[in-house]
Amino acid sequence: MKKTAIIIIIILLIVLVSIVAGFAFFKDESWRDYPRDTVNPYADTMVYAENGLELTLSKDGSYYCVSDIGKCTDTDIVIPSHHGGIPIEEIGITAFYTQSDIVTVSIPDTVRSIGDGAFTKCEKLRFNLYENGSYLGNSENPYAFLIRYDTPYVADAVIHENTTVLADQAFEKSTLTSVSIPEGVTVIGKCAFRYCKSLKKVEIPASVHTLGSSAFEGCSALEEAIIGDGITDIKSQTFYQCSSLKNIRFPDGLRNIGYEAFINCRALEVIDLPLSLESIGEDAFANCTSLKSITLHRGIETIFPDAFKNVSSFNQIDSVNYLGNEEEPYLYAISVSDTDENEIILQKGTYGIAGNFLSGASPERFGIEGGEGDYLRSAGNCIVRKEDGKLICGSSADNIPSELSVSSIGDYAFFAAAGSKHVTVPESVTEIGEYAFSKSPSLESVVFLGEDVKLGNRAFYRCKNLASVILPGGLKEIPIGCFSSCDNLSKIRIPESVDFIGYMAFDSCDSLQEIELKGVKVIEYMAFSGCKSLEKVEFSDSLEHIGNCAFSSCEALRSFSLPKSIIHIGDQAFSGTSIEEFVPPDFVLDFTSTAFSNCGDLVAAKYPEGVTALKTNSLKGCKSLKALHLPSTLESISSCALMYCSSLERIYFNGTLEEWFAIEKGERWYAMTPAFTLICRDGKYQYPENNDQPNY
To answer: Which of 348, 380, 384 lies closest to 365, judged by CA?
Structure first.
């Protein structure tokens, strides 16, 4: 009974962890900050510094992040400034978490960000103390990096004058009422002052060039924020729910305001946005219900959907809500107050249109007064910018007017456009913007007449009825989420010119049955994840990289052939597929061994020579696995590597019994498996090692 109870408890714990992890995944909105252009395809490239520290290359390949202690056994850690000529600029989230043997850490001046929990539970670590702050640095400046500030009874925080970086969460939930940030600080980390509910005023000096997301989130007593001119980007949720914020000074060089940056700042009355501003993010000022005056200037390229949701201080003519300035009050058309209008005509002085402007509206006639405005012109229910021919908004994409010489289709141009069924993109169009046709409910087919066209991120995201797409012949890449959640897309021909499939490009395309990737070199993270009908994949002979979860949960996928060109296969790349056998090419340089976990139909698996480790949960849930071939290069098998391999009969190890027993094995590495036979070059061995003890 005791053994049975233990088994039940273990299973319940596993299920609970899975549920929690699932909730975390669905809540995650990190995609909003995903870079628009992925320069370096090997986003998860990991190397080791000379002292063994684990380094991860940035998305654009321009810097390294210290992601883990790795193989380093030093108690006095020295983080190098460069590796292979590339600077080390970040210390990642929980990089040294629970490393209780570390005594000192020297951080170079190249580091510009220290992640949340990087040094949490490093019990022996000696910080450099000043006032109530715990600092790290180097021999030249021991106070360069403020890791945390303890303020249980402190009202006024004093930061050392030589500090350059405030780490993520440095002051989170502190009781301070004021803080003096010295000139010389260049970075204020993510969540640095989050939930400092007594903080009333903050002045950010001009030396600060990076202000992390959620930096002042939930500072409910904050009344005034003066942002120095070094800041060019206010990131997502920076002042989220600062409900007392009345006065905000925007820097003169500000370019972007991020997603939900000022949402629920209900006391905010006046915002005067600078001439330099280029974009205002989704829900940036949503629910700022006290706003009486909003000043915008010409030059803003994009106002994302719902940037001013539930704001009433608009300049209104007919059913259209505008924002602008005293000289030009109708610069930007923000929203439509009456979506039942059959005719929506914009003022001649309108310069720009907010994303999702026509949300819920489907007018029979849409355009500019007289068809020709000061900055825009219209025809065929489409509005085009005069200066560059960009189509910035339309109520129907069925007939993109040739007489307007459209050169590109802007962000959100036909977002949720109800009337579009069959779209022909003219030869003159060279670029499709982000979310350009996203959520168009009736869109069924798209044909590109031009050859050289660049597609924007999530251009056709959630077009539920999109079934047919003829892509341009010269297309170079399928970008982030481009066809994600297009439920009815059953087949699409990828031109041989395409060498890159981006993050979540075809994620959850439930009807997609087959795909040919004849010229593709890189398949990014979750590119085809959740394509549950996908049965056939033909890889190109030049394929090099398959990212994490690239084909995860493609439950109909039973077989495929990997080319000799493959260099990297990512974590859980084929997890949850119905593949019956995998034999990676012997020349795979970087094979991540969790690629085939939870493949319930997998019968046989062979890892190539060169693989040194089976990670935790490597083949977890491969309940049909009978034969496993392991290379002589294997050095370690982690805990639960073969968990729930309930049909396992034989492990073939390409080495001797002595070499097998020298392999480091984690606790319960073959948990929940039946008895099986190990077959080495010089003999056999029976598992479990004590047949009187079941392997549970």
So the answer is: 380
